[in-house]
Give the backbone structure.
Amino acid sequence: MVKPRGAASRAAKRILIADHEPGIRSSIGRALAAAGYLSDFTASGTKALEQALECHYDLIILDLVMPDVAGPCLLDRILSERPEQAVIVISRVDNTAMKVYCLERGAQDYLTKPFSLAELLARVRLRLREDAASLNHPVSSAEAAGTGEVIRAGGLALDVAHLAADAGRGLVPLTRLEFMLLRELAEHVGQPVPKDLLLATVWGCDFAPRSNILDVCVRRLRSKLGVDRIVTVRGEGYQLAGRLPAA
């Protein structure tokens, strides 16, 4: 484990780096330590799975090419057991199909090797929500007032701390991507949000026109919160409906 400099270690985020290339593991670990993060390392897919399920990590940086377990299978296993686990995939595989596959399975980001450490650190900070200015979301009045980080819009209550939403029937846990998408829609309640803007703000990158990654995430939210909560505005995008009438 690499210990962070500066801030007290009790406040440091803990990150697992699973990569088969020792040079990359080392350079990422040094960069994260300099930024104040704790890091664990492994070059084994099997060991990465064990560590991910036995320990708490604020983030996992996962290489797709592991010597003993295929990265996509490893990602599926981790997220099936811990669906709220934040994962950034790093890989030399540079094609849209693999990127879409990983993001649809629940990865928060996909970074193609070679990459700059500065870019990786920026994405790490974004995913860990340490830099409010980089989140693309203004702070809500509820957050500013310190009322437990609850955002209310369209008859929904979004629990920021627990990544959950309440549509009137109790809290429903969401994946990190589902929550980020719902939060973006909540910031524009009653207004259509273009699909390309949602892709950019939630997933952080562009996709091929035929990609259905956004539509899949919307379907999952509708199944959890009700089909009428998110409206498709033909030719414009998606919008969070206003407060629905009582049943």
